[in-house]
Amino acid sequence: MTTSTTVTTQNQAKNNGTTATKVPKNYGKIVLTLHNCLLPETTFKETPSQADGLDIETEIDLRVLGCEMIQTAGILLKLPQVAMATGQMYLQRFYYSKSFVRYPMETTAMGSIYLASKVEEKPCRIRDVINVFHHIKQVRAQKTISPLIVDLNYIELKNQVIKAERRILKELGFCVHVKHPHKLIVVYLQLLQYEKNKALMQMAWNYMNDALRTDVFMRFPPETIACACIFLTARKIGLPLPNNPHWFLLFKVTEEEIREICVRILQLYKRTKVNPEELESKVDSLRRVYQANRQMQVQKEREAKLEEKKSEPSTSTSKETKRETKNEKSPKTPPLSSKYHTSHKKRERRSRSPYERKREYSSKRHKSRSREREIDRSRERRSDDKRSRTSSRKYDDYERSKSSRDSREDKRKH
What does the DSSP 8-state code read for residue 196? Predict the structure, then answer.
């Protein structure tokens, strides 16, 4: 049947002069491709954090602080640079879809580096990640370094990190592949015949690692970032590069994009050092406001539901009045007996827990077993009675036969 239908549809399309096109299937809102790492311009205009009342400068400072913590934690955990860069990319992408006010930055940074270590095939324990971040906080606050105690707070923090990892995966649509420009810098310098210039390669590498703290990787592809890092390093050292034509045109990169990336990287070095405690206090104040507003909204929803429930009886009373008027018009029928009503009452089903169900099942099973045992006992008793009766009958017959024989013998003697 299926082959005939397909042939008929093809013939109809040929007769109409049109070609049958396949309709693409929509499997969900998230598009899983390797080219969706760049975000549209609309997301940069108003982020979720700004919608919750956080200013732009504080948000940038939080992004920079989170990336710095991931970088230092990766060095202490002895992870490769690719894993640290992947963790920073996850953090940047996550906070373009979620707010700093609703989700704390520190636990998200832990979850991002923990996930990046798995993706880059250098997995580390979650306890090591928590200990390293605890050590970084103590060093920054200039406190005496003390080990983290394994108690209820530690268990709660561990659960929060695991939830943060799952949340990152959900927001990224499980598309965790990241294309880094580390190898591209080496390849481009080999094409320019500057691969032996270690100072040029090292500085370009450093610029690229620092660019991870900005939004450059969310705006431009890795090929453009690699060209911008080489361009900025050559300007810094004073090394001439091919100009006629420009060398970056070979990689389909424009000069405007390179200049914009260079400006964004240089603006990072002009920013003043941030106090993490001040940032935490700002975010905490906004978080309290958000939680209070949320509680108010929940309370309003509850009140609205209660009002709806109160308004429902009025409608039911109106229905009852209509029914009464109909009954008055129609001839009255004699009322049914109370037995009928009691027999047809619906039993209210009570929601039972699995434990109660198990107890009830076990009690029923026990009752059935006890009944079976009683039946078996009664059968045994009956069989015993029958045996006793048969044995008594046999004994009586034997006695009778014996007495008759004795009487016969006595007669013979006489």
Answer: T
